Amino acid sequence: MTTPAELALTCTELSPAELAHLQRLLGAWSVLADLSFSDLVLVVPTTPIPGEERELVVIGQIRPTNRPTLLEQDLVGQTVRQAAWALSTAALERGTVVRGAVHHPLIGESVPVENIPVGFGGKVVAVLVRVYARPSEAPLSVYGKRYLDVFERLVQMIMASEFPFRDEDVGTEETPRVGDGFVLVDGEGRVEFASPNAINAFHRMGVYSTPEGRTFTELGIEESAVQWALAAGRPVMEEVERRPDVVVLVQCIPLLEEVASTGAVILMRDVTDVRRLDRLLLSKDAAIREVHHRVKNNLQTISSLLSLQARRLPSDDGRAALYEAERRVRSIAVVHEILSRDPGDQVPFGEIVQSLVRMAEDSVVSARVVEITVDGNLGEVTADVATPLAVALAEVLQNAVEHAFRDDMAPEPGHVRVAMSAGREGLSITVRDNGLGLDEAFDIERTASLGLSIVRDLVVSQLGGSITMGRLPEGGTEVAIRLPSNGH
User: Fold this and answer.
1) d(Cα 33, Cα 478) in Å, to the nearest integer?
2) Which end of the chain is more exposed for a tag (fewer CB within 10 A), N or C?
């Protein structure tokens, strides 16, 4: 789906500053839709084409949460000729609010619309189109009148480039909406009106006295956010904890008139359950990290026991077998060590590779220097792929440093190069050395080496990939491991 920024860049002449202003408006206009009980559409003039009538393009649309929508279809990205939307065109040209009615094809009759010019930098850069239902015969409720009054005050701010605020952050899913709880205060911070849901929020915070005519301090609630918003003329959001088990998110939006604060809208949302879930998730993450930490410690204990047992064996073959088992256990412990720091489903494989390289370099016992270099990265891989892949790579590196080079070879250092890449085709790891090279008759499918048999089974059977080993034309060995894209 095309974003507002993409539409603006491809279809309009908006400057970066103007586009940023409209993006802030799109991030903050949920309060406008709810206060006006209306669908809102943001339209911008398109780039003029010589000889053709200029058009308007819709770059944003929002529906109210407290009234049924009148615009069931998605209009974002649609373009219309200015003559077809004459009211919006008039608002663009005059810089004043233009009211009227348009025919609604689904309802079969005309619906009222209000076209609000969006000012910025001394000019009109867009039009905010309000589409709403005709008033019913019944009089508006008290809170309905308050909502529309505040909406009209915000309209004046939109025209004067005072809303949205220049340093306002884009709203998130947790940002309170009007239906969560609405409080209107005057320029001194005294409550003029509180919606029923706001009264419920006050009750949750242990406040049962009538809020009208009192400040938050007089109600026994911290009011630093309100005072700061009124003094600075900037929106403020903070969490208020009245009791250990009650958390209310408070957003204070100042109402400005010629830069001066004449009051503020306070939206209140009870986020107690959300914060409780956050704490549970943190506890779960901590528990998972602790499990991985203990697994790592247990594997390291097993590794130490295998090493101790190997030292006591008189047989060289038995000792070598235990050392190999100990190394494989350590390579698995590396994965759990990383998971103990970040218990997600994805593991940064680059960190694992660096640990495996250090293990291989530390195991070199000959006088010949062996250098291991790594190029590329696999990024993050799933934990169930990281463990067998780490064991396989550790085995390949160990095989290279132990068997590819002899002390009686040329005095130059031995080189082992690891190349890694990740793409749509999957994961790729290639290990090349400049050592002795394999025999021409070597076949990994028929190898008698336990280590290479383990590597083949891990890559093919467990990871569903492929592995090839062969002699390079210039001498040395190449091991290529390929995994399908679903392993990433």
Assistant:
1) 64
2) N
Domain 4-141+152-159 and domain 361-488, same fold? Reply is: no
| Spatial distance between the Cα atoms of 128 and 58, rounded to a whole number of angstroms | 10
Quickly list DSSP for 144-176: HHHHHHHHHHHHHHHHTT-SS-TTPPPP-TTS-
Domain ranges of the chain: 4-141+152-159, 178-270, 272-344, 361-488
Residue 448 pLDDT: 73
pLDDT at 237 (0 to 100) = 87
Backbone angle region of 426, left / alpha / beta, with phi > 0 → left and psi within -120 to 50 → alpha: left
Q: Where are the alpha helices (DSSP H) in 313-348?
A: 316-341
The answer, yes or no, to whether residue 484 has pLDDT greater than 80, is: yes
Sequence-separated (6 or more) residues with CB below 8 Å from residue 413: 368, 369, 370, 371
Residue 21, pLDDT score: 92
- Statement: residue 108 has pLDDT above 70: no
| Whether domain 361-488 has CATH 1.10.3720.10 | no
Cα distances from 249 to residues 177, 200, 275, 356, in angstroms, run 11, 14, 10, 47
Question: Binning pLDDT at 50, 70 and 90, where does residue 382 land?
Answer: confident
Q: Which CATH superfamily is domain 178-270 in?
A: PAS domain (3.30.450.20)
Match 């790579």 to its residue by tokens.
Answer: 393
Is the CB of residue 265 less than 8 Å from the CB of residue 255? yes
What pLDDT does residue 487 have? Answer: 47
Rounded CA-CA distance 310/304 in Å is 10
**3-state helix/strand/coil string of 31-72:** HHHHHHCCEEEEEEECCCCCCCCCEEEEEEEECCCCCCCCCC
- Flag whether pLDDT at 279 surpasses 80: no
Token digits of residue 214 = 């009192």
Question: Quick one: pLDDT band at residue 4, thresholds 50, 70, 90?
Answer: low
Residue 102 has pLDDT above 70, yes or no: yes
For residues 351 and 265, the model is more confident at 265
Beta bridge partners of 100: 113
3-state class of 258 per DSSP? coil
* 65 residue type, one letter: T
Q: CA-to-CA distance for 185 and 322, rounded, in angstroms?
A: 76
Angle of CA points 322, 327, 330, to nearest 5°: 125
CA 99 to CA 86: how far, in whole Å?
Answer: 11
Listed residue (118, 12, 19) closest to 55, CA to CA: 12
Tokens of 260: 């001066």
**Which residues are paired to 129 by β-bridges?**
41, 115
Q: Is pLDDT above 80 for 468?
A: yes
CATH code, 4-141+152-159:
3.30.450.280
Average pLDDT over residues 25-37: 93
Other Cβ atoms within 10 Å of 206 Cβ, number: 12
